[in-house]
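S.,

Sequence below, as promised.
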Amino acid sequence: MTQQLISSIENLRILEPSLTGQRVFLCSYYDDSKTPFGGGDFYYDETDTKTPDDAGTTIVTATGKRWKRVESQKREWYASWFGLDPSLQDCSPALQRIASSARKRTVILPQAPRANPMRLMSPIYFQNNCGIHLIGHGAKDRTVFSDMRGTDNENQALLNFPSKNNPLWGGSEQGYAGIILENFSLLGNPLYLGDGLYLQAQYRATYRNITIEDFNGCALFIDKCQDSVFDAVDIWGSGSSSGDRKNPVDSFNISKTLKNPIMIRSSYGSDRANFLRFNNCQFEDNWVCPVFSTIGGICCEFNSCHIEYNANVDVTNTNGGTFFQGSEGVYTFNDGGIAEYRVISIGHCELYMYNVRCTPGIDLSMTSGSNSRVYIHRTNISSLSALATSSFKVFDNCIFTKDIAISYPDNLTYFDNCEFRGKVTGTSSSNGNIGVYFKSCHFSSEINFNSAARNIFIIGGYVIGDVSFGSGGGVFNPTKHNGALIQSSVDPYYIQPTRKQSIGANAPASGTYRIGDIRYNTAPTAGAFIGWICISAGSPGVWKGFGAIAA
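The prediction came back faster than expected:
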């Protein structure tokens, strides 16, 4: 028997089955398509009286009979089955059909380059706990959704994965099914306010090879998500400002920021976002600052991420741009690099940075009076704000590229094996300061700590420049010091004099020495001296014996 041909999904819905097991062939989803798509074999399932019409895999006639797509039993579904194709002027209805129907299914998206993207004129809402696996053919220029909403959508994303307050579904159900989104791009419409991707209470989710670009709003909004991975998720040119979002004088001004390019928040009270991993991501040319803004997040990691903006842009009269602002939570940066952006700002949170290449260096800003805990390893730092936090701070093998002012240190602070290329100063400390340790550090310039900068301990290392040291209870005991030393108060606990100390059987006969340099006698005998001290600088200078040994 010849198989009946049906021209469109609407004509299939009109067709009433006449035979048990009857099969028909759908030629195309739409009968006016220049290039057919979305077709396939359908059969009449007389045993099914309950499956709803999803406009893609199950079609219900006026009498309640059901046509089933033959291939719908496969693991993967195709978006074209629901009428999604870049040839449409508006792909929103088709994508919404998928969002409403493909629960816990893998859906393969069509190819749609930037020159002919899938245009969305309405926001898309997926079901609560949808568990969908949405996969395209590649980010950037292979599977692209373009935001064509023609009005401001200030608090509405293009793609929404909510768990409550869903405008299309009632109730509340968190996303334990674990969505997977990969290999596609979201292209924003900078003429209107609007967010890109909204994720709410999604668990064990995977986001891979996604580009979100040019949204005049939040490109990636994370609302209380947990145990999820963002692999190669790139955020470009997004964020909204009350000023000019492309002019650093406005966009770097945090007071003018309306929406950050990336935001972590929680609408679940004290139940915060936890254990999020950002791996091999690229955050570039996001002018609205801070680029990454988070309130609450336990053990969120950034691994081998690439962060920068165009170095040729004039950033005069700005702070250089803030990449990260965290007011609560625990955040770790491993490897990767931060270029151009200057500021990392933290409040009541913990920050750990390991081997992050920062050019020219970060300005680390810590909120005074917070409980910020900081551990930074092998990272360039340009400046430090107040260190008045109730938790420890460790800077290990870091390079401080400019003058550093140690301001109001509180609790224990350690600088281990660090290099200071500019001046290091401190003029005050809080009453809770119990020690700021500089261990085995290299100081290329001057050091100046007055009496009020309490408990400063410089132990080991090499100091090249002049030193004025008066730290109350402090210790100045470098391995080597070349410059002049002034004790500026009577309050230090111990100061190692700046002088050469050598050994020999006689006073030096060669070399250059300063007043106060000492030569200890290696072969003292009765009637000789314990050593010699330089009393007039020169080469070798004038030396006088001290510590005469009784005959």
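The radius of gyration is 34 Å.

Coffee later?
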